[in-house]
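re the bet — no i am not wrong, look at it urself. input seq straight from the record:
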Amino acid sequence: MTIRSQRRGLSLLLATMTLTLGLTSTITPASAADSATAATAATGKPTVVLVHGVFADSSGWNATITALQKAGFPVIAAANPLRDLAGDAAYVSSIIDTIPGPVIMVGHSYGGAAITNAARGHDNVKALVYVAAFAPDEGETPLELAGKFPGSKLPPALVARPHPGGTDGYIDPAKFREVFAADLPASQTRLMAATQRPGSVEGLSGHSGVPAWKSVPSWFVIPTADNVIPPAVQRFMAKRAGGKIKEVPGASHVVMMSRPDTVVRHILAAYAATR
């Protein structure tokens, strides 16, 4: 290849990059939220915002998303940062800021603590649905609530991994299925254990602010075989919030994966009661 042809190739590459960057800079932010808003306008149904918890990601909502979309609901599954409660709640709140229509917020596990704070100040949030989730009161922490009643198998299964910004907690892969997802196939939980997103110890120790459940109606899905957040803790939080409770006998902490139909029915019940 001659120097001239090399220069010509480089010029073409730079021109292509310039064009690409120029086009990228014109893309409107929050396209997912814009799509959800358009879908709301077309269907008249609220946007369902799903927030995952620690040791998981948004893929845990896949069956829920499929059913809700089939029923005509626009859905956004937020990527919870899992760094600190105040920051995580602010991130989820920023998503709600981009949705002008009505919203139903659904939180799993630590995601419940996030929606408890993120929904605050948003008049368009019509319902809160807690799925095997924390619903802290002001000043409480998820870690504090998890130990309020006996039954959690999580503490002895945690593996701490320090990093420059703090310490992350993982579930020991050998104990992952028993603790987190005992009613899912072992082949599936091995993958979940390998791909788990760690929770920041600092985040789980974060103090909650004024809870949105004091002003927004709430629904609770409580799996009776939850080995992460004891059912007794979930019942305590649900009754305190005045929430409507659905217990799921024999279901594990990831009830939205093992019993997605039950979770979807509870979300639909929240929609029917607040439409």
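see?? Residues 1-29 have pLDDT under 50 and may be disordered. told u. also The CA atoms of residues 64 and 264 lie 6 Å apart. so pay up
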